[in-house]
Amino acid sequence: MVIYGAIGNVSVAALFLGGFLPGLIIGVGLMVLVFLVARRRNYPREPWVGIREIISRFFGALLALLMPVIILGGVFSGIFTATESAAVAVTYAILVGIFVYRELKWSDLPRLFYLASLLSAKVMFLIATATFVGFLFAHQKIPQHLADGLLMLTNRPWLVLLMVNILLLVIGCVIEVAAALILGPVLIPIMDSLGVNLVHFGVVMVVNLAIGTIHPPVGNCLYIVSVISSESIGKCSIAVIPVVGVMIAALMLITFVPELVLIVPRYFGY
């Protein structure tokens, strides 16, 4: 969302807010799927540990759970920007990790800073490349030509959104998520010309590409799960089909009911 916001000059806070209801819809859908699969396969249940233990575990995890509250709360309240919230969250994580949970050591920090720098450089390179590509496309009027071509087929925004969804789902299967966001400079002007809200389209695009992270053949998360579970990528690819189905159903819902994305940002004044 941060990359999309930078490419399309769209409020990152509005994108974060727009993702709340779609995230809940996908989460509930996957919970129902997991429940049905567990019941059908008769998976074992964890024993009930009692209210006191649940409360104890909750407070044990409370400091870690506060991190997203700090990030999102700070951005939505206007106390600091998305970039500043990241710096605050990192400082908070270091202090809690070293002095409270004691899972971090001072000697770990140089390696972590190095890895974070590599990731940041990758993201900034993608943004810089996408900005240049956007300028090049705009100079050559490629978005206008594509928009004209799509409008020759149909001038109905919902049908164009359907075609773009199919395009993004296919691209997400073969291209890494962040790299696929380079399509933003091409697609954003088309959506804008059709009157599609760019916050709505941003959430739709992000959900599309998130599906690509678990979709064969190059879904990064799929390979990670394969390694963790010691199962073949073939078995994981078959098992993930119902999960992909639930996420695509949720994607179609938020695509054709824009209010599911926009109601929360509008409530906060975006």
Task: List its salient traits.
270 residues; mainly alpha; 15 helices
Task: Quickly describe the structure.
The chain is an all-alpha fold. The chain has helices spanning 2-8, 12-18, 20-41, 51-77, 82-99, 109-139, 142-153, 157-174, 177-180, 184-193, 198-212, 220-229, 233-239, 241-256, 259-267.
Report on the structure:
- By secondary structure, the chain is an all-alpha fold.
- The chain has one domain.
- The protein contains 15 helices and no strands.
- Helix 11 runs antiparallel to helix 14.
- The longest helix has 31 residues.
- It is globular.
Through-space gap between termini: 16 Å
Proportion in β-strands: under 5%
Give the topology string: H per helix, E per strand: HHHHHHHHHHHHHHH
Characterize the main sheet: none
Rg on CA atoms, Å: 21 Å
Mean pLDDT: 84
Number of domains: 1
Number of helices: 15
Secondary-structure class: mainly alpha
- Helix content bin: over 70%
Judging from the principal axes of the Cα atoms, what is the shape?
globular
What's the β-strand tally? 0
| Stretches with pLDDT under 50, minimum 5 residues | none
